[in-house]
What does this fold into?
Amino acid sequence: MDPAPYLALVVGLAVVCQWVAWRAKVPALLVLLVAGFTLGRLFSPDEILGRELLFAGVQLAVGIILFEGALGLRFRQVRDLGVPILRLCSRTVVITWVLVTLLAWGLGFDLRAALLVGAILTVTGPTVINPILRTLRPTRRVSQLLRWEGIVVDAIGAILGVLVLQVITSSGRTGPLLDAVITLLRAVGIAVLLSVVVGWLLTWMMRRDLLPDYLQGVTFLAAALGTMTLSNAVQSESGLLTVTLLGILLANQPGLHIQHIIEFLEHLQVLFVGALFVILAGRVEPRDLVGVADVAGLFVLGLLAIRAISIAVGLAGTEVTKQERTLMMAMAPRGIIAASITSIFALEFTHAAETAFARGDEAWAAEDFAGAETLYARAGDLYNLAQEVDRLVPLVFLVIVSTVAIYGLGVGRLAERLGLATVTPRGVLFAGSAPWVVAAAKRLRELQVPTLIVARERGDLRQARMSGLRTETASIISEYAVEDMDLAGIRSLVCATRDDNTNAIAASEFSHVLGRSNVHTLKRHDEEESTARRATAGRLKGNVAFSPPTDYDTLLANSRNHWRVTSTVLTDAYSADDFWVEHPRAIVLFVHSESGTNVASGARQGGETGDVFVAMIPDAETEEAEAAERRRTEAGHRETVGPR
It folds into this structure.
């Protein structure tokens, strides 16, 4: 097959697999790996793309994935978590490296290959953790700890792998350990220098409006790729650390607005992750998997124990709670970074062996027979080691499949038992604190539905706080609300402020956080008289809340006129139609069922037996007075139009 149709097929599979995983509510990586293994039996990526081009592309794609992740790491998000993050990126990394090395060595791998796989498996896979966090939506502290660990430790793991490679392949006069120290200093130095220079340049250009909006995303992308390539040219495999530092530096520049750039790179990241898993899984032969199957089970069990030990020891004495540490022990799936780095290092050992063999030929031609014999022996040793590292590739893929299945499928129930997340979030976030909002939140609380009420002024939340409801004093369109606010257990947003434009902006911002289908706004005051020139742009609109759709003033007036928020259970004897007959002027706010809590919508909300309508209805006296007023109005109308 030609490269073009093969790549088109890979992209198509990457998208379809991730959609299937979303529909089936399983980790996308598992579906991608199955598709990759299957496609690899039909077409060989190495034969179609060539190993050199393939791994160059893999390296660049991994760099973009880490750069995109680093752009979301804000220091202000972790001001109270500095020590735990430092421990995760230092002490736990060393513990994991040492213990995984001992595990692999004990299972029969060469010590040098064991050191390498120990370095590689210090990474925890942000490409897997981030989708799990999106679905699970745990507490802010746990989420931030895992995000920082996933991104930063990936770059550290790559550098550790380079140091091991340097020690093993070193043939310099200074000795392997000194070579490794020089390599480390050079990698860190070039990473800091390039990230600071390129970061300053990009910031300077953005602040002086030297980049039009349509070029900003691709400019950041090109800068990341160029910086990574230059860094790798100076020091092999230092590029991942460089782009990680560059992303963190740009993310923490005050006044630099890059959310649209992050969204652009997020789309690329989804595509690259899917494509990389399909391609790299296609390189693994079934016989290779069978060859390491005998040790894979013990290796995976050992990794689970090592994760628990490294977290327990690494975070001991920090402010991280016992529940948070327990959840973190169960969240270390490996992902595309581990797979790609292992494959790249296997190729590097082959290149080192070929280089040693070529130098042996040169020494033989120069009649330095003793030197030639030494180089030939070294080349043979490196070839054997390359074959040992090749065995690590299928082992790492089995580790990826196993850890994603174990951590990804089991962590939800554990997080729920620990009180740090909800397997099926059903909570409601209210923007605005009108009296009817407080009444609705109290009714939802009776149904065991978590709520959060957000208002700009603390005084506006007095009634909600006195009712024992969870509140936050913040603007719903602030960076804090959109990026930092703890949304554990929250599924839906109801934008219920007095200002229609604030509601529209909040709906647009939170559609990226909760999903567009879960974001709702009140009916606009001017909805009936809006024209094409005055109507809100479609991208700013949320779903119109409640049944029938109602604006802020009407809901507030109803509240002042003593309308009540009630909950009504639908039964076989009392259906949704019966509810509407009894309460024709009701406003259904929410529909609660065993599967979740949904914001009501449409002109006449339907329901099934067992559903609970949370609705706003007139009290008996108000309803009777309104009915009498309608009768008087109708009578007056008949007098006016009747015969004289």
Strands lie at 427-431, 451-455, 471-473, 490-495, 519-521, 543-544, 564-569, 587-593, 596-599, 612-617. Confidence is low (pLDDT under 50) at residues 637-644.
